[in-house]
Write a structure and sequence with these properties.
Blueprint lengths: L5 E7 L1 H4 L7 H11 L3 E8 L3 H14 L4 E5 L10 H8 L2 E2 L2 H11 L12 E4 L2 E6 L3 H23 L14
Parallel strand pairs: 1-2, 1-3, 3-6
Antiparallel strand pairs: 4-5, 5-6
Helix pairs in contact: 2-6, 3-4, 5-6
């Protein structure tokens, strides 16, 4: 990749947004991205509110035009865990393989990995991926998909297939 890729990290937490819990997953995700060469251009923490999540995802996709928007939190079974629904409300093309890969990786660590309701998809030129809210799980899930995400964003930014095929040999 010739140009530096941009990312936004949005922590979704009622307690965190009220100052009742310190966010460790958002900063961990940011440091992982920076170590991998990404430019994290936006971070925020918001409560588990569907419309606020939608507004944040539209903002980072449509206004900031980041390459990758990662959310952390709100992917479980609690009644206020609405991040996947808000994500799917804004994506134009779902990318189900990303959360499938994250769940598969999580299942190797804990059988509770199957409980993740994380979603992912593309809005305009932005790939949006939901990560779990715990620092440990967010790190493990991002590690499972960060390399393929690079290739996916290359394809998203290209006019064709981003070197998906094997070059033909000269005759």
């Amino acid at each position: 990749m010739s140009e530096k890729l941009t990312a936004a990290v949005i922590t979704i937490s009622d307690k965190g947004s009220r100052g009742e819990r310190i966010d460790t997953s958002g900063p961990r995700i940011c440091s992982m991205l920076k170590e991998d060469g990404w430019d994290v251009v936006y971070t925020d923490m918001i409560p588990d509110e569907h419309d606020m999540i939608v507004n944040e995802l539209v903002y980072v996709s449509d206004r900031l035009k980041v390459d990758l928007a990662l959310t952390t939190g709100g992917t479980g079974f609690a009644p206020r865990d609405v991040t996947p629904e808000a994500t799917m409300a804004v994506v134009e093309r779902p990318t189900p393989g990303i959360p499938e890969a994250m769940r598969a990786a999580s299942m190797k660590i804990t059988n509770r990995g199957c409980l993740s309701r994380a979603a992912a998809g593309i809005r305009k030129g932005t790939l949006i991926v939901n990560l779990p809210g715990s620092e440990k799980a967010a790190k493990e899930n991002l590690e499972a998909v960060l390399d393929p995400i690079h290739h996916g964003i290359d394809m998203l930014k290209s006019s064709g297939s981003a070197d998906c095929g094997v070059p033909l040999a000269d005759d």
